[in-house]
Design a protein that fits this description.
With about 450 residues, the chain is mainly alpha-helical. It has one domain. It is about 65% helix and about 0% strand. The chain has 17 helices and two strands. Strand 1 and strand 2 form a beta hairpin. It is globular and about 65 Å long. It starts with 5 loop residues before the first helix and ends in a 21-residue tail after the last helix.
């Protein structure tokens, strides 16, 4: 029996979005608004779209023995998701009380002259390597090998390194690091390559995160009101492109049909079916699998170990653990249950409350840290956090999601480590990188 009905839950989530918008105007902090907006779209809006007849609940048929999703079961899942959202955003706002300064992108010439050629050269080297690796992965899949069990995860995820390189390029560009036409053309070419490699049905959540990272970097020098307008435009554009990528799954559609299908998918939130995934995961835990009680987070440390060195390494994702596969090549299947669904798998309602608070405090500590370091590093860290936020909130196989973070942003992490002394707070005393804090 659900504790709250849909109108109450939708009102709570809309209220959180409104308050998060005020929070952004007040503190120039976009994170609660991004969290609240995304969770609203994948939960309350998804529930409304299906119950209003604009979409249908996900159905796996007879595969896996899952029961059909009902409106009552979806409402119960929605109660859990709203509870987790309240804990997550509440913990974040309680712990993050810093105003994020508006950055004045003054060129730091010696640093940028050292960094910009390295980023450009590394990006240009990676482009053909990525093309070769994608061809190799495609050949292995065509030979009948399983993406989950036979193809190296390092090989499959290596192309995501372009996302980290592109994030660095945007930061360098924002701070005036590309002074010649030649370097700007090369930088733009790499950005086009990143867009091409991430714009696909299988990596559309990464593309969405990458667009958010771009918005963070490019809007960092504007006042909160202007940034709020920019994020609204980016959100509409991102949902549209995201829906087009989802519609591209059907390769038989003509171009006009793809656009129509994309509009229908966006309006029905068909690609944002995490509420459906939450209902499914409730049918698994604890009836078919025991709560993991933190083991899924512990597996984050185990995932980097190659299966070639550890053949018996536990598989990730509840579908794999239940040995539910599709087709003869043993491909995996799964409906992402959102990050809150992953918390539910860790320990039910206790897991949702505990991990939502923990994640809220971690997000707050990261954002507070960005106020105490060099502005270039500050924007870079916030861009990484926001790019990771969408795949993370989508949920699913958490170790696999964190593996994507590492493979996508290791160039950024390497820079932050190499230049850690340069990025220390003491440097801020000798430079004027920030505008007046008034909104």
């Amino acid at each position: 029996m659900p504790l709250f009905e849909f109108p109450d839950l939708a009102f709570i989530q809309i209220g959180l979005i409104v308050f998060s918008g005020i929070w952004m105007l007040w503190r120039n902090d976009e994170l609660p608004l991004l969290i609240g907006g995304f969770l609203f779209y994948i939960s309350s809006y998804r529930y409304w779209a299906v119950t209003s007849g604009f979409g249908k609940w996900v159905s796996l048929g007879k595969l896996g023995g899952f029961n059909s999703i009902t409106t009552e079961a979806a409402l119960i899942a929605l109660n859990y998701m709203v509870l987790g959202e309240i804990c997550l955003i509440g913990a974040y706002m309680f712990c993050q009380k810093q105003f994020l300064p508006v950055i004045k992108p003054i060129s730091d010439r010696p640093f940028l002259q050292w960094l910009s050629p390295k980023v450009i050269n590394f990006g240009l080297i990676c482009l053909p390597i990525v093309l070769y690796i994608r061809a190799q992965v495609g050949a292995q899949l065509a030979a009948g090998q399983s993406l989950a069990f036979d193809v190296s995860g390092y090989l499959y995820l290596f192309p995501m390194v372009l996302v980290g390189i592109a994030t660095l390029i945007l930061c360098v560009w924002k701070f005036g690091g590309f002074s010649s036409i030649r370097t700007k053309i090369m930088a733009f070419s790499i950005l086009v390559g990143v867009s091409y490699y991430t714009f696909s049905p299988n990596s559309r959540f990464q593309f969405l995160g990458w667009m958010l990272a771009s918005a963070i970097v490019l809007s960092s020098s504007y006042r909160p009101k202007t940034r709020l307008i920019i994020f609204t435009i980016i959100a509409i554009l991102a949902i549209s492109i995201f829906a087009v990528a989802g519609a591209m799954r059907n390769t038989t559609l003509a171009e006009d049909a793809v656009n129509q299908a994309a509009l229908e998918r966006a309006f029905s939130a068909e690609d944002a079916n995490m509420l459906d995934g939450f209902v499914m995961i409730q049918q698994v835990y604890p009836e078919r699998l025991d709560f993991s009680w933190g083991m899924e987070h512990l597996e984050i440390l185990m995932r980097p170990i190659p299966r070639a060195l550890w053949p018996e390494k536990p598989v990730g994702g509840y579908m794999n653990k239940l040995n539910i596969t599709i087709n003869q090549s043993k491909g995996t299947l799964g409906i992402s249950p959102s990050l809150l669904g992953s918390f539910y798998a860790e320990g039910g309602i206790i897991g949702i409350i505990f991990f939502s608070i923990v994640y809220g405090k971690i997000f707050a500590s990261i954002v507070r840290y960005t106020t105490r370091i060099h502005p270039f590093a500050s924007i870079l860290v916030r861009a990484i956090l926001c790019a990771c936020l969408i795949p993370l909130l989508r949920g699913g196989d958490l170790p696999g999601i964190y593996a994507w973070f590492g493979m996508a942003f290791w160039p950024c992490f390497l820079l932050l480590w190499i230049k850690q002394k340069y990025f220390r707070p003491s440097y801020l005393l000798t430079r004027h990188f920030y505008l007046n804090n008034s909104v």
